[in-house]
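Hi team,

Below is the intake form for Sulfatase from Neorhizobium phenanthreniclasticum. Please confirm the fields before the structure is written into the shared record.

FORM ID: S-0412
PROTEIN: Sulfatase
ORGANISM: Neorhizobium phenanthreniclasticum
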Amino acid sequence: MPRIAIASVIVAVILALPSRPEALTNVSEIRFPLEVIGIVLFALVLDGAGFAILKWGITLSLAAMLFLKLADIGTGMVFQRPFNPYLDLKILTDGWNLLSGTVGVAVAVGIICAGLVAWLLVTVVLYWSFDGFRHSAVEARRKSVLASGILFLVGLAAFIVQDRDHRNLGIEARAVPYFVNRVAMVKDSVADLARFEDEVKQDPVSAGRHFSALAGTDVVLIFIESYGRSAIEDPRYATRINDRLDLMEREIEAAGLQARSGWLTSPTVGGISWLAHGTLLSGLWIDSQARYDRMITSERRSLNSLFHAAGWRTTAVMPAITMDWPEAGYFGYNSVHDAHGLGYKGKPFNWVTMPDQYTLSAFERLERQGRDEPGHTPVMAEMALISSHAPWTPIPSLVDWDQVGDGTVFNPQAEGGESPSVIWADPARVRTQYIASIDYTLETLGSYMVRYGRNTLFILLGDHQPAAIITGEEASRDVPMHIVAGNPELLDRLDGWNLQRGMIPTKETPVYRMDEFRRKLVESFD
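The structure came back. Fields below:
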């Protein structure tokens, strides 16, 4: 009988385990799984080959369900969506990079090994405990069969008559719908790629030269890691960031620059930043790795390629890229400055390879020296700043631009601050560190534009909202966008966007999807 109890408990726990992170702390979400009664009943009455098939089938099915539910919880915490076997297996390496960069390699290995061992242990114990149904006494089995049959019929009747959302009696059928929904998810993903093939072929931007209104102007497009709408509107962060944006606005205006601000909807949340980059630059909605992989093999011209065709020298500044980046060939860069190519000699800030101020300073040194000389070819740069990337410790601070040098000036800062494991043990500390990193990046960008902003169009935007631990579960996928220039005639060309003047977009400011940006920018500056 103890083995029967163990098997019943394991089956019930796996079936009842929520697959949404927020449901883990909500007891009212837990429902007794109706299938437990049926499984116990069949295990008691089947013999021989029938029992063996049942034991193997239940063990493998529930092991698969447990794996998928744990994966759902993981992707739900980071990306606020369930795990998709068809799409997400391709990003396991990036998940490892994020986890190891946040808590350290040793701790990350420990977490993964502990999870795998626990999963295997549960599977083995479930398989072993099922034999208890065969070893019970005949009289006990007869009584158990009768009791299980009555419970099954009562539960089935209750399930049929209860309301449609299955909440009145705390009973719910879970296994079959769960697997059916997962199969449907995979089928939808395959169909989505077929639809995407048609989207790739339909480009609203015509062939030819564009951006004549920007002739001779450098264009610097900067993605700010994890800079989402919540940073401006969430009461926990709004005061600090709105004060920062207001100060930035006053500083750039004193330097002869003006700003327009709005909102863009990102295709991703919590991570996988390259989906947002691909969406903005291609004008295609890239919300999965499969779509991204197809995009980079297509002939769809990126925003970078359009500028290159119009006479700009295009460059990518990517301090987070530490390995080969074959995808760069799609975008049409004349040059790529990755973490190694930027020449940083200082110490990393945990996962963050270098502070944003150094990235911006290196860009000026590598790409914009001599830009005031006759015959200078204008630059179109795409940059991804990463100081606001998790684990958000230590937080850099601004130094004199003339002292940046090779980056060793930042070593005392890189060695300071608490470790990620300490910060991430307290969600409140995580949120404090997050908003401090956004504040630092905005302060750095304000100082940068004041110093280097002449004859330049800056496009600053977030890549995605941070994870739910920062925003809460129901946050939008919107990110702020700021367009800054010293030539008011350029900003006047954006009047049709109905953007907010200044650095702070309002609730009434229109929201555009990121895949609309490429077309709108071309139309505005042709």
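SUMMARY LINE: Residues 48-79 form the longest helix (32 residues).

Thanks, M.
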